TrEMBL record:
Family matches, as PANTHER family: ASSIMILATORY NITRATE REDUCTASE CATALYTIC SUBUNIT (PTHR43742:SF2), TRIMETHYLAMINE-N-OXIDE REDUCTASE (PTHR43742)
Keyword annotations of the record: Iron, Iron-sulfur, Metal-binding
InterPro entries named among the record's database cross-references: Asp_de-COase-like_dom_sf, MoPterin_dinucl-bd_dom, Mopterin_OxRdtase, Mopterin_OxRdtase_4Fe-4S_dom, Prok_Mopterin_Oxidored
Domain 4Fe-4S Mo/W bis-MGD-type residues, every copy: 3-59
Matching Pfam families: Molybdop_Fe4S4, Molybdopterin, Molydop_binding
Protein name as catalogued: 4Fe-4S Mo/W bis-MGD-type domain-containing protein
Family label: Belongs to the prokaryotic molybdopterin-containing oxidoreductase family.
Length: 764
């Protein structure tokens, strides 16, 4: 780019902050918040400056490398593509299509090029052994949305700017900047909530950064949220506080939910949750009696033993108290590229348990098996065993429970390829690494997180820098591999039509697709005066067509969709280019019943799968907690999952990879500040420094995720000198939420003791 200031969206976390990047003499001179960004209005966090560090990082790979007997060797793109396509094809021909496993990591969803290219790529691979970060993250939300609203990515988002009560359970947005709630400047928004007389309540096993700015805070025993939430449901019925408001005529099976909640009195759950019965009742009353209120739950409630139930109950509580689809409550978004409607149109509303994984008999969700069973599928011989593996933008050796076992499993593969720009804990096992261009060398449109933002916005930015010579974008890598794999599958040649199709795609890239989706979307082309004549005709056709006719979705996805009549029009890529700070499409609005995708058009309050899981919850009600510690995770604002520790600016300062333990527990087992503790869990152990305070619930300990860069053979010099240890080395991979298949990343039991050699630190 020429010198000057470039505006774009930071793609690192879900918050969608607008950044203003100034370039001088071809280099980044400064990165600031973009005051004119309609969503973030100037806010950024310390990670934004790492955009520069990532861009300039000498450790970042620029060319394909291949593992040889004596280290890594750079090879040409053509050689690399040939090698990878041939090896994958070979494995598939020899052992069948399921012998190739694929893992897609989190950064894919921040990259519209990858998203567009992934579908054809997965089709070309053709394997059922697909995995992603979803099952270590938001899977319970997807399952709940699918079961209750009929669509896997139709999430209710807190209307945080208009609410008077924000009840936050199992989330720490002050550190994470929000999840399934793209919310730049949460601090400012919470301050505004208080200024208008509103209230923040936090429920968490740790007095987090968010808890510290709350008006009310309650410790909760890890993994017991479903009990708490069920007791709140119980209270609502018991005290006659149920009033679904505008959703009243849309809810189905409320009585089943009432019946299910009968045994869960606040008194019965108090012992397990650690929350007083009267406090539980009061929480339910506050939610019911505050007109504009939102109950929001995230990672802490979804990645635990009852993740599915807890997430379902948190949605139910919002509905029972009339918060769903109301301003100041929980609202569905109306993004400019409406993947919800598009997905429904193309048969992608989602599915669950259509088939089961080979080794552990775990259910698929949307075509993926739980990531916690990846190693089983690699290590267990038999037909369908994974022998070749592809990772795209993921670091499962660190991000998946029982990382050491996965290390071992990856070592035993016949072939592995990683699309990634770092040689890290996972990609070190690859035979070939294909590095994409850096983020600032590609255009950006947030397809996913605009769907979850607290305001409807749209923004597009062209690449800031021209890609370095002889580099490839993620989408180019995936499409090239797809093309070659398809050719090999067809014996070397494709029919002319497909050949032309692939070539056109390679020529155009993903941006023209964005343009088309914007133009045909809710804020797309203006039909102008023609609308007057067109609309009655369309309405008539819609009246006549059967409910499930495919033409209906086509109309739904066109500018003549009546539901979209009131929206601003004229969005296209060109329009977004003319508005480099982004376009404000307005506050979230009620949208029911139109936005529902269930067969009967109703909200399913008591889906069978959830009811069936209640037996397990009931057992938990009567089981006494054991004496072990419960391990939970934590996030820090200067870190992002497993890949940002190579930025010196982000890792500097006090050691952050510590075990937080309550004073009382530390005294009991003889730990002092600065000591090293040995943590044992999942049959393994790690050693790390302790941090003692009273911000954590007694009986609970916390270790942040993201660390563990002390493994051999990685090339991330800064991260290696701030290695830390990996929490996932002491989390078992056979502990899952049995309803959804999500990994239990919070609440596993561990034992702690002082580590003997207190001077040196290492992984035990
Ligand atoms: N114990 C525990 N485990 C957890 C969590 C937890 O809280 N506790 N959190 C879970 C959650 S929420 C998530 S989302 C997962 C994340 O788990 P993963 O998705 O597996 O890990 P990331 O760190 O997001 O992956 C980053 C990888 O992508 C590469 N990368 C970055 N940008 C790009 C790009 O543009 N293109 C390509 N090709 N590669 C890129 C990086 O180099 C790095 O290798 O971890 C989960 N695991
Ligand atoms: N700085 C930073 N920001 C990030 C990320 C990051 O790694 N660093 N990762 C991004 C990603 S991929 C995601 S998915 C989001 C996640 O965003 P959040 O959902 O906000 O995730 P956390 O900050 O881990 O907050 C989870 C909270 O749950 C609590 N908790 C643990 N167990 C339980 C329990 O059993 N019950 C209850 N009620 N609470 C419990 C933890 O103490 C913690 O405070 O953050 C995103 N943003
Ligand atoms: S909160 Fe930080 S990392 Fe997240 S989008 Fe904003 S600037 Fe980027
Ligand atoms: Mo995540």
């Amino acid at each position: 780019m020429e010198n000057g200031t470039h505006f774009r969206t930071c793609h690192l976390c879900e918050a969608l902050c607008g950044v203003a990047i100034t370039v001088k003499d071809g280099r980044i001179d400064s990165i600031k918040g973009d005051e004119n960004d309609p969503l973030s209005q100037g806010h950024i966090c310390p990670k934004a400056t790492a955009l520069q560090d990532l861009h300039e990082d000498p450790d970042r790979l620029r060319r394909p490398i291949r593992k040889t007997g004596d280290g890594w060797q750079e090879i040409s793109w053509d050689e690399a593509f040939d090698l990878v396509a041939n090896r994958l094809h070979q494995v598939r021909s020899q052992h069948g299509r399921n012998s190739i496993g694929v893992y897609l990591g989190n950064p894919n969803v921040h990259n519209h090029g990858s998203l567009v290219a992934t579908m054809p790529f997965l089709r070309a691979i053709g394997s059922q052994n697909r995995f992603s970060a979803t099952s270590n993250d938001q899977l319970p939300h997807m399952l709940t949305s699918l079961e209750m609203f009929g669509h896997q990515i139709l999430f209710p988002i807190p209307d945080i700017d208009h609410t008077d009560l924000f009840m936050c359970i199992g989330a720490n947005p002050m550190a994470s900047n929000g999840s399934l709630m793209s919310v730049p400047d949460i601090r400012g928004r919470l301050k505004a909530l208080k200024q208008r007389g509103g209230k923040l309540i936090v429920i968490d096993p740790r007095r987090t950064e968010t808890a510290k700015v709350a008006d009310e805070f309650h410790f909760i025993r890890p993994g017991s949220d479903a009990l708490l939430l069920m007791a709140m449901v119980h209270t609502l019925f018991d005290e006659d506080l149920v009033d679904p408001g505008p959703a009243e005529r849309l809810v189905k099976d409320i009585d089943l939910l009432r019946l299910a909640s009968v045994p869960y009195t606040p008194d019965a759950v108090s012992h397990r949750t650690g929350i007083e019965p009267e406090t539980i009742r009061e929480l339910a009353r506050q939610l019911a009696q505050t007109r504009k209120a939102a109950l929001y739950s995230r990672m802490g409630t979804s990645t635990q033993a009852f993740g599915g139930l807890a997430t379902w109950l948190s949605y139910c509580l919002n509905i029972l108290t009339g918060k769903l689809d109301t301003v100041g409550g929980m609202l569905f978004t109306q993004p400019a590229i409406d993947l919800v409607t598009l997905g429904a149109m193309s048969g992608q509303k989602g599915h669950f348990d259509k088939r089961r994984s080979r080794v552990r008999d775990l259910p698929e969700f949307a075509g993926e098996y739980p990531a916690s069973t990846m190693a089983d599928e690699m290590l267990t011989p038999g037909e369908g065993q994974i022998r070749a593996f592809v990772t795209v933008a993921g670091n499962p050796v660190l991000s998946n429970p029982n990382g050491r076992r996965l290390d071992k499993a990856l070592e035993g593969l016949d072939f592995m390829v990683s699309v990634d720009y770092y040689l890290n804990e996972t990609t070190r096992h690859a035979d070939v690494i294909l590095p994409p261009t850096a983020a600032l060398e590609r255009s950006h449109y947030d397809l996913i997180f605009n769907m979850f933002a607290v305001r409807n916005v749209a923004k597009f930015s062209d690449a800031l820098f021209k890609p370095a010579d002889d580099t490839r974008h993620d989408w180019q890598i995936l499409i090239e591999l797809t093309h070659r794999l398809e050719r090999l599958r067809k014996g070397g040649r494709l029919p002319l039509r497909s050949e032309l199709g692939w070539r056109t795609f390679k020529q155009l890239g993903p941006d023209p697709i964005l343009d088309m989706l914007l133009r045909t979307g809710p804020y797309g082309a203006n039909t102008g005066p023609a609308r007057k004549f067109l609309q009655p005709a369309v309405d008539l056709v819609m009246d006549i067509l059967p409910e499930r006719h495919p033409l209906r979705s086509l109309v739904r996805l066109s500018p003549v969709n009546r539901e979209w009549n009131g929206l601003a029009k004229g969005l296209s890529l060109a329009a977004l280019r003319d508005n480099p700070h982004g376009v404000d499409l307005g506050a979230l609005q009620p949208s029911l019943p139109n936005r529902l995708f269930t067969r009967d058009g109703l909200i399913q309050m008591a889906p069978r799968r959830f009811l069936q899981d209640l037996g397990r919850l009931h057992e938990a009600l009567s089981t006494d907690p054991d004496g072990d510690f419960r391990l939970i995770g934590r996030r820090h604002v200067r870190s992002n999952n497993y890949w940002m520790h190579n930025s010196r600016r982000l890792v500097k300062g006090k050691e952050r990879c510590t075990l937080i333990i309550h004073q009382q527990d530390a005294d009991r087992i003889g730990l002092k500040a600065g000591d090293m503790a040995e943590v044992q869990g999942g049959g393994q152990q790690i050693v790390l420094p302790v941090e003692i305070n009273e911000d954590i619930m007694p009986g609970v300990v916390s270790i942040p995720h993201g660390w563990g860069h002390d493994r051999e053979g990685i090339r991330q010099s800064v991260a290696q000198s701030h290695a830390g240890t990996s929490i996932n080395d002491v989390l078992a991979d056979d502990q899952i939420d049995h309803l959804s298949g999500t990994s239990v990343l919070n609440g596993q039991s561990v034992s702690i003791k002082a580590w003997q050699a207190k001077t040196s630190r290492q992984s035990a």
